[in-house]
Design a protein that fits this description.
It comes from Shigella dysenteriae. It contains three helices and no strands. It is an all-alpha fold and about 90 residues long. It has one domain.
């Protein structure tokens, strides 16, 4: 299962919507902690117990993915902003 599929599963389970127009209402650390709890609960239901190191690794990966998504969005936004200089039709004197 890829990370994107895992995050999609977590979003469905928690009811988190991923709209681009929607601003984040909580810090990334809280989001990462929530994802880690959901993953731990899903794994516990499957009979797999996660330890503290596993939870830390999940939180770190979620924070990395959130930072990556934010950087990509920033790059796309800066690519949109272009300045086109136009030569004046005639010089004023």
């Amino acid at each position: 299962m890829t990370e994107a599929e895992l995050l999609g599963l977590i979003r469905r389970v928690t009811g988190i919507s991923q709209q681009h127009d929607e601003q984040a209402t909580q810090p990334d650390s809280v989001t990462a902690e929530n994802y880690a709890r959901v993953v731990a609960e899903v794994m516990r239901r499957d009979g797999i117990q996660l330890n503290d190191v596993d939870m830390r690794n999940i939180r770190i990966r979620v924070l990395e993915m959130l930072a990556y998504n934010r950087r990509v969005a920033l790059y796309r936004e800066t690519e949109k902003i272009t300045y086109h200089w136009k030569k004046p039709e005639r010089l004023r004197r």
